[in-house]
Every structure is written in structure tokens, then in C-alpha cells.
Amino acid sequence: MTDVIDETLASHNQTPEAVPEAGLFGKAVNAIGLLFAIGILASAGLLFYEVVMRYVFNAPTRWVHETVVFLSALAFVYGGLYAAAIDKHIRVVIFYDRLSAGMKRVFNILISLTCLIASLFFAWAAWLSVKRAAWTPQGDFRLETSGSAWNPPYPGLLKIFLLIILVLLVVQFTIFTINYLRRKGQA
């Protein structure tokens, strides 16, 4: 009985691995995900710091809230790429799980192609946003800022990061499509 409990606990404590179809790129995405997890922990620490500064020392900060929102946004944006690499994205399994191995392969190819095309469109839209957030109408480089008292360039940086992640999603779904095409007769 204790072996079953130990095995169950061990399986729940493991970090998900990238699926084989994600290739080496997926493994790299999975490994880098730890940095964004640390960012979430840093956000929690910063929130605790803000509470102490505000309510214990009556000296609130101007930078913690925006920094926490920025770090959290980076983690959530990266989460899309991470979810793709470990194949934990949303899927209607009530139909998918009933398919034969050959049909699963066809669906995997179609899903990957659809995601690839959608990621391309979203990357294009992100590029249009980055053009406005990173350059003035005269062509000078100037990142969009938050407009707050502290006024960090977090909005501009976040838009650039979103563009990078969407381009990486295009790469990831291209790898998925190629690898699913190579796997003849398998799910």
C-alpha cells in the first residue's frame, strides 16, 4: 500500500516534460519555463514586501504593483508556449480520445497546422502593436511606458515579448506538424 502512495506522490511531484513531437525546441522551452516560475515566486515576495512597507512602515512603494503585474504577465504569455511544448493545451477529448490511431495522426496534423496559421496571424498583429509601442511616428526608438508616477517601459517590453513568444509558437507548431507528418500509422 505504501508503494502505491509513494508512486502516486512521486508522479504528482514531477515537472511535466515536453512531448517527443516537440523536439529539442520543446525541451528547451520546458527548461526555460523554470525562470518564469521563479518570476511568479518573486512576484509573491514583492507583494509581501509591499504589504509590509505599506502597513507596517506606512511607506508604500511606487514600483511594486507594476513590477508584479509585469512579471505575472510575462509568465502567463510564456505559459502558452510552455503548454504547447508539453501538449497540455485545450483539446476536446470527448471526440479525440475515440479516434483510431490513424485518425488521431490526421487530427494532430490538422490541429498543428491550424495552430501554426493562427500563431502566424497573431504574430503579425503583435508586430503591428510593437511598431506603435517601440517607435515614434518619426521612426525614433522609444518604448511605450505605463504613464504612472513611476512610468516604466513595461507595456512596450511586454508587447515585444508577446511578439517573440508568438514567433516561437510558429516554430513550435511547425516542428509539431513536421513530426506528426513523419509518424506514419501512429497516433
TrEMBL record:
<feature type="transmembrane region" description="Helical">
    <location>
        <begin position="160"/>
        <end position="181"/>
    </location>
</feature>
<keyword id="KW-1003">Cell membrane</keyword>
<protein>
    <recommendedName>
        <fullName>TRAP transporter small permease protein</fullName>
    </recommendedName>
</protein>
<dbReference type="GO" id="GO:0022857">
    <property type="term" value="F:transmembrane transporter activity"/>
</dbReference>
<comment type="subunit">
    <text>The complex comprises the extracytoplasmic solute receptor protein and the two transmembrane proteins.</text>
</comment>
<keyword id="KW-0812">Transmembrane</keyword>
<dbReference type="GO" id="GO:0005886">
    <property type="term" value="C:plasma membrane"/>
</dbReference>
<comment type="similarity">
    <text>Belongs to the TRAP transporter small permease family.</text>
</comment>
<feature type="domain" description="Tripartite ATP-independent periplasmic transporters DctQ component">
    <location>
        <begin position="45"/>
        <end position="173"/>
    </location>
</feature>
<feature type="transmembrane region" description="Helical">
    <location>
        <begin position="68"/>
        <end position="85"/>
    </location>
</feature>
<keyword id="KW-0472">Membrane</keyword>
<dbReference type="Pfam" id="PF04290">
    <property type="entry name" value="DctQ"/>
</dbReference>
<keyword id="KW-1133">Transmembrane helix</keyword>
<feature type="transmembrane region" description="Helical">
    <location>
        <begin position="28"/>
        <end position="48"/>
    </location>
</feature>
<keyword id="KW-0813">Transport</keyword>
<feature type="transmembrane region" description="Helical">
    <location>
        <begin position="106"/>
        <end position="127"/>
    </location>
</feature>
<comment type="function">
    <text>Part of the tripartite ATP-independent periplasmic (TRAP) transport system.</text>
</comment>
<dbReference type="InterPro" id="IPR055348">
    <property type="entry name" value="DctQ"/>
</dbReference>
<keyword id="KW-0997">Cell inner membrane</keyword>
<dbReference type="InterPro" id="IPR007387">
    <property type="entry name" value="TRAP_DctQ"/>
</dbReference>
